[in-house]
Amino acid sequence: MTESDHERPVIIQSDRTILLEVHSPEFQNARNSLAAFAELIKSPEHFHTYLLSSLSIWNAASAGFTAERIIEELSFWSRFPIPENVLYFIKETINRYGLLSLHRINQNDQFLYLYVPEANLHHELLSRKNIASLLAPLPENVDPDLTGRNIENQKDIQLGFLVHLYNRGELKLQLIKAGYPVDDQCPLREGDPLPVSLRSQTLSGYPFDIRNYQFEARDSFTASGNGCSGFGTLVLPCGSGKTIIGIAVIEALQTNTLILTTNTAAVHQWMFELLDKTTLERDQIGEYTGFKKEICPITVCTYQILTWRKDKLSDFPHFSIFSKRNWGLIIYDEVHVLPAPVFKVTAEIQAISRLGLTATLVREDNREDEVFSLVGPKRYDVPWKELEQKGWIAEANCYEIRIPLKQELELSYAVGTRREKHRIAAENPLKIDVVKQLIENHPDDYILVIGQYISQLKELAEELKQPIITGLTQNARREELYGAFRRGEQRILIVSKVANFAIDLPDASVAIQVSGTFGSRQEEAQRLGRILRPKEHGSSFYSIVTRFTTEEEFSANRQKFLIEQGYKYHIENWD
To answer: Do the beta carbons of residue 299 and residue 362 sit within 8 Å?
Structure first.
């Protein structure tokens, strides 16, 4: 197809928003192109709206995009010429990626060198108090290792600053907030070696092969030829085998590894997969949770235990795990929920290879830049629909079922605060009848009923006479119920948001969402992900929404990320 004869479904506006026509025959191709360097912000029926943001362009730069390539792709799809200010923004923003760089100082283990290429930028950094407080003047006898920088004048080195090793992560975070993402050139610490091999047949007796896209994701992190080794984030759908990619990275690096994940059930899943698919023995894999404190060459830990402390003024006692062994790799499972206190130990973390795994980098608090600067930029991304078409994840049908508000609740809804309105709509008692009917419609499926409010879930559990899992459920009971579900002994589970992350229930084929965390796109994606393991007959995702309430508005926002991935929601009124 030539540029002159293809459909042009894109309109680029001077405020850096991009309108993409949904009904264009080229919608899918244009959407895939835009996703590499723009963020989806609205997705109504006829035009989707994207935004060219600094972070989206820096993520593209980390994946090898140049300003010329971004402009070329935009020009190919755009119906009209690209506004001049947008062209300027793209070039200026991408040029800032790596403008500043951190380097090791020879014979010095306590300080780093921040390279600054020009005097104006030197003065700008000093004028920002939150950045200047992290910088120190450069002594004349400092000998930074500037490999990769072409320094023509020795005086240019004096424009840089001394940075204490402890401030490495905080400086990177403050600089990205100021619009200057840092190219961290400091060598990463080599951890203690750990011989690891992958099995060709699992202990469970099944053949085991790494899929092509899993190899690509691993290589994008280990830098087989792309020069960005050792830190970054991999974004793949739920059910695509992110745990397997993490294991492949461990096998590639052959080093002591600390794995951080969301809950005890996820810890046990990681441990099972490591034993099942590698030559590691049980005494080489440690569990570090509220129940056990094992430190082994491979240690799997929960974020919850890491961030526990007696009170707000106390230290975090379990942060010492970062110094208990000479780690060569840290894996952040579900990195988009990485708790802020973990960043307090950036001095330890920044010197180690860091791998983030997630289905979506979307955060409703807009703090994606923390993941970018402290864990690493996006190194690999694959569209959900692409893996669905190849059969690696289940074909999913998404439905939004709208129901009326129960009449006796209309007055309390009308006079309630915004938060009260959301809860009244979310806990609409009529949802129970809809859940019952949907379960009847799927007599042979394994079903998860998912919600936000415990009182609502308890009522459903009583009505359906089915077990419930919440944050208060003991871990032993959780594992018992998950195990029964996996073995086919329990067909229906009612679960709170504890099941949003890192729970492997491969036979689940229907998810019924009765309530959610306001407009959380990340939660919507995670919940759909519970039913995406490949199945012959596909999967169904139902979201029950109270009509003409704030829940409709929140539901539209929740669906936004999945619509970007190519999913369509069939909207039906419940009669």
So the answer is: no
